[in-house]
Write the structure tokens for this entry.
Amino acid sequence: MTRSDVALDPPSAPVPGAGAADANKQRIFVASQWQLTWWRFRKHKVAVASACVVVALYLVVAGADFLAYADPNASEAQRSLMPPQRVHWFDGGRFGPYVYAVKGARDLQSFKRVYREDPSEKIPIRFFAQGFEYRFLGVIPTTRHLIGVDGGRDANKTIFLLGTDVQGRDLWSRLMFATRISLTIGLVGVTMSLVLGVVLGGLSGFYGGIADTLIQRVIEILRSIPTIPLWMGLAAALPRDWSILQVYFAITIIISLLAWTELARVVRGRFLSLREEDFVVSARLVGCSQMRTIFVHMVPSFMSHIIAATTLALPAMIVSETALSFLGLGLRPPAMSWGVLLQQAQNVQTVALSPWLMLPAVPVIIAVMAFNFLGDGLRDAADPYGR
Amino acid sequence: MLAYIGRRAILAIFTVWAISVLSFAIIQLPPGDYVTSYIAQMASMGSVVTDEEAQNLRIQYGLGQPIYIQYLKWMKLVVQGNFGMSMEWRRPVTEVIGERFWLTVVVSVASLLLTWVLALPIGIYSAVRQYSPGDYAATFVGFIGLAVPNFLLALVLLYLGFTLFNAHIGGLFSPELQDAPWSMARAWDLLKHLPIPAVILGLAGTAQQVRIMRANLLDELRKPYVVTARSKGLTEMALILRYPVRLALNPFASTIGYTLPYIVSGSIIVSLVLGLPTVGPLLLKALIAQDMFLAGTIVLLLGVMTVIGTLISDILLVWVDPRIRLEET
Amino acid sequence: MAAEVQPTLLSVRDLKTYFYQDEGMVKAVDGVSFDLYPGGTLGIVGESGCGKSVTARSILGIVDRPGRIVDGEIRFRRQAVTRVGDANRVVDLAKLPPNGPDIRAIRGAEIALIFQEPMSSFSPVHTIGSQIDEAIMLHQQVDRRRAREKTIEMLRRVGVSSPEQRVDQLSNQLSGGLRQRAMIAMALSCHPTLLIADEPTTALDVTTQSQILDLMRQLQREDGMAIMLITHDLGVVAEMATDVAVMYLGRVVEQAPVDEIFHAPRHPYTQGLLRSIPRMRSRSRERLNPIAGVVPHPYDRPTGCPFHPRCPQFMPGRCDAEEPTLRPVGDKHAVSCFLYP
């Protein structure tokens, strides 16, 4: 047995091939929590794609007027219940989208309006065309829209990408504006739920004791109540003569009153588990006040969970508002939201004849899926012990 | 264990009380009352109601007194089984609701059962055969269930049924048996019509439960006692069902209770779309007409049904997990 | 190997178990060979991560996904009472279909496994008794009542007091030592010929440790079974083992009878391990002698001999270029090192 020369030296013989791995580990050790969360999130491709979808949706919210090409309130009896027009993309070999003009006539046997394409008249689709006047981002007055046709205000020469509703209003333009309302109601509602949820959940989790028991019971009671009948009742109670804005806020308040429970549970759970953590105890021992302990030490460690829970609460809000408006109890015309648009598709007879009236369901589904995936991705990324 | 059940029961009673107050308050919220809308209705038909007549109506329906007196009067009647008169239909509320309430119960329970029955095996399969085509298929269908709101799903299915199959898939009965008295034929007819509403209502809940079961089971499958069981020589199927599934059931069972309010809730809108003879469409009409007793009773009944269901599921939870039993005793 | 005087009970040859992870392939067990004799105790020693547990699980075919056996033989001699004929009594466990009836008939009945963490190795919601009953009823044709009697007998045998009450308790109601005894009872309930003990005493305090080891030795004497004892504790090995196999990074680097391992170790790693044991008679304030370096990351395996980066007798050009194989250097003593070509 020989004594090794290396025995007395500090142990760390270089191991071949470990250099790169070490550098990576260094980066991981010094990264902040937000960076770690972001890195984990990035790996989750579906969540990243959903984030892009959500961004796209909110771009629509900002640019609804720009994306619409017809005045959403301009009704035109001659164009009632017109099916979506087929867009032809290539005009004689070159890229030049156009539609055929459509002539409507009343079918003498069924007394319904029937529409036929007139192949003799091509209406080219222009990009950045002139249309109705609006204020871009609420500030800049302009008449430019993404697409449109020449002589844009003549009803006989407009395009109807998604068809029209029973009053002859263009569905695409209405959909753009409806998106704006539906997505922002969700935000307002979620903010209110967030405030309620964080405050009550925090009280419950941090102080424990009677406050906790009381709030817990209230949450349990609220969770056992079927929500829709309650919302229906509350929404039906809103006076018919309230302005759209008042109804809008009232609806969000109504929905938030029951939706805060989920967030409160998450917050409470986090506070409960964090209370026992050593770093919290040591913060108190060092002399931090309760406020400081909560806001400087505890809250940052579950911020990402809160963000995830909030993101997951959004689709529920959106669906709730859609449902209420669908029933006629939420927002009402002339306000436009996905639910209001879908109200026209309430029975199967109407829908069978004019299936395009169901199209507003598509953005609902897209939004719900996108928010759900995004929220899931955020939740997985936020959890340091996840895989 | 009895103490636990006792506590849950007390909570349930409180919840029912809260629901009764809430339902009564809701009805009182709209400005004006039934008489106001009755007068408006009469006016639109061209006739006029004198003030004296209005006053009499108010006394008749007890509408002039303070709120809490009205509430107490109502509760007294309710516990005697008298739910008051529907002012719009001019018949006792119980008659107007009729079998609709029980049909609501049937649809909700069917949906709940379906959720359990589907979610459990699919969740187990998904976890055990992770990343298999079956897992992906289940996940995909699950996403549809979660992403598409139930009433939209009902609408789309109705449309597809109508246009593709020329079939009318709404309703709980075939037209000829709709108003017939109860019989075996009618019961069977009901059963035949149940699957579609039950699936539509339960799909979102099922999807959620599948995800929960899958996540729980995946956690449990990694644990050492599973390896022990395998090393004893059990078959995969037997050991999975007997051990990790048994443990994954606990958090699973606790979530079932809260699916019921969701299902009952959803049944209101879905009933409207599918034209089911349940309580939903009736509630909407009652609210619009401000038919106080009818609407309040429906909300109360729905709430009570939900609370009872949740209580039952809480009891089941304790039966399923002996650890809770030990903790509580 | 030298000619055996008695037939081996378990003979592992060149076992390879790899884990196919997203980040890369981990060669947890990379060519392990050893022999186990009936009634003997083989101690498998090594640092954490050297593949000892994976070896044990490979033998029973319960390696967790994404790991699987990719090569090698695990030849096991089955009991005389089995229904297979004499000619078929030696089976290659590596070739049996995973989770098929053959390997399942062996698990628990002929080869049993006990684990490091008895708390989490029992199901928390089933009673101890029911889990032992299950093992008995799986492999023996007895009804529930008889199985329960046997369970109680077994619990008594392993030294669990008041077994009739304990049988209906949950695992979290027993102390650590009792739990481990219950685990042993479960493992031995069908009288296996081979007991694999994966760090059975690591989670226990020293007193309980020695009690459990005494128990295992006593049961071994009574039943004549072989024990494969996996541990990182050389003291346990000295006390229990008849033969020792030293593992490093998925390979057996030295195998010998226990006396030779302690008094005449050949492989530099074994020598390093023995040197690093603090001695009672050493002077105070004397530095400990750890082995230089750290165990390499599984994705960063060194080329050639896996130990060469930390070996005080590293021979450049040889040790980092070729992989050594296990060669005999004496009666029942084999080493895998270029110092002994």
